[in-house]
Write a sequence for this structure.
């Protein structure tokens, strides 16, 4: 029997001999085999799509959050109470608000090492301006916001206008603010802490906005938790639904290509530094109106917690990847670890050890997720 030659390029058959087959096979062997192969390919594509949908940047953070939560529920029975969970969420929100802003900045391809001391700088500025000038506290709040945003503008301008990387620019800002906090407070007030402003005009209304509590089903929930979730929703909407979100990802992932497409890369980066300054200011206002006074030496080292929360949440150190949800989960892990150690009755000196171990574990998990993404691409 003569044979027809066949060549296959990709999925296209160039020449195939057709042989009569029973009707149930569709009339030809070629049609049956082709239909079977196409069905198999479609099944493979569906499986790949399902795996890709699971291999998201925040998957590692979600797995880490579940593991940490279950672990501390087992070893710290007080955490099973809703009031304890409220405390965990409160601590998480204090980490989480700046971590959201830092995550956006990291997606844009930059760092800010001054965020921790900027929290205290904002609180000190608002407190001392209100107290020394005997003004309504809202005057100090507004002036503090202006100063905070100006620091963000300076950081961003130096990064985009000079060849100095953001790591070094903000490291310099960190030391300058830390020194200014101590020296400035001592120079103006004669002490290392500010005087109480609880009896000044506007304090009650400012505390209502920045440091009040809400009763939710009989559980006391701090307002920072509400603000944290609102900011997370806003950040998610910006990243997923607006052109600004595309600009942020493009600025961090491929800045040269972004410039070629007309994206204002410099303005995006300056705006992101201002967002970090705003978040630091907001947490500073909470601390001021929650405790009435501010210690000038606080805040040092907190910037690393914000960065770690963002990294644990799936942000790449090289930029271009990350989500607001991931930063929320990273901050929740921090809050759970902080309070879990306390409720378990362990020595709190172990906290930093757990933070380091947690960071390594989640980074390894995120790396595995990215390998899965690459293999299914």
């Amino acid at each position: 029997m003569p044979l027809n030659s066949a060549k296959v390029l990709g999925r296209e058959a160039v020449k195939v001999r057709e042989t009569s087959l029973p009707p149930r096979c569709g009339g030809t062997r070629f049609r049956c085999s082709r239909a079977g192969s196409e069905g198999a390919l479609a099944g493979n594509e569906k499986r790949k799509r399902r795996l890709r949908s699971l291999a998201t940047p925040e998957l590692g953070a979600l797995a880490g959050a579940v593991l940490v939560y279950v672990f501390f529920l087992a070893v710290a029975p007080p955490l099973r109470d809703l009031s304890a969970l409220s405390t965990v969420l409160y601590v998480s929100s204090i980490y989480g608000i700046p971590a959201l802003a830092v995550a956006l900045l990291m997606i844009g391809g930059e760092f800010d090492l001054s965020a921790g001391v900027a929290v205290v700088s904002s609180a000190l500025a608002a407190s001392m301006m209100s107290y020394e000038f005997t003004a309504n506290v809202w005057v100090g709040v507004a002036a503090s916001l202006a100063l905070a945003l100006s620091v963000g503008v300076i950081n961003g301008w130096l990064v985009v206008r000079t060849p100095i990387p953001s790591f070094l620019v903000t490291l310099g800002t960190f030391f300058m603010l830390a020194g200014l906090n101590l020296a400035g407070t001592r120079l103006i007030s004669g002490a290392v802490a500010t005087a109480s402003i609880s009896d000044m005009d506007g304090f009650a209304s400012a505390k209502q906005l920045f440091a009040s509590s809400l009763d939710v089903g009989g559980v006391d929930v701090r307002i920072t938790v509400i603000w944290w979730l609102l900011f997370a929703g806003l950040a998610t909407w910006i990243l997923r639904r607006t052109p600004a979100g595309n600009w942020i990802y493009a600025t961090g992932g491929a800045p040269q290509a972004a410039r070629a497409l007309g994206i204002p890369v410099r303005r995006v980066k300056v705006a992101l530094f201002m967002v970090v300054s705003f978040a630091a200011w907001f947490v500073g206002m909470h601390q001021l109106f929650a405790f009435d006074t501010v210690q000038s030496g606080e805040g040092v080292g907190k910037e690393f917690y914000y960065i770690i929360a963002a990294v644990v949440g799936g942000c790449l150190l090289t930029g271009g990847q990350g989500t607001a949800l991931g930063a929320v989960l990273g901050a929740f892990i921090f809050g759970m670890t902080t309070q879990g150690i306390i409720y378990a009755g362990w020595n709190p000196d172990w906290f930093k050890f757990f933070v380091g171990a947690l960071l390594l574990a989640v980074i390894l998990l995120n790396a595995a997720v990215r390998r899965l993404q690459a293999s299914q691409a």
User: Anything to note?
Assistant: The chain is about 70% helix and 5% strand.
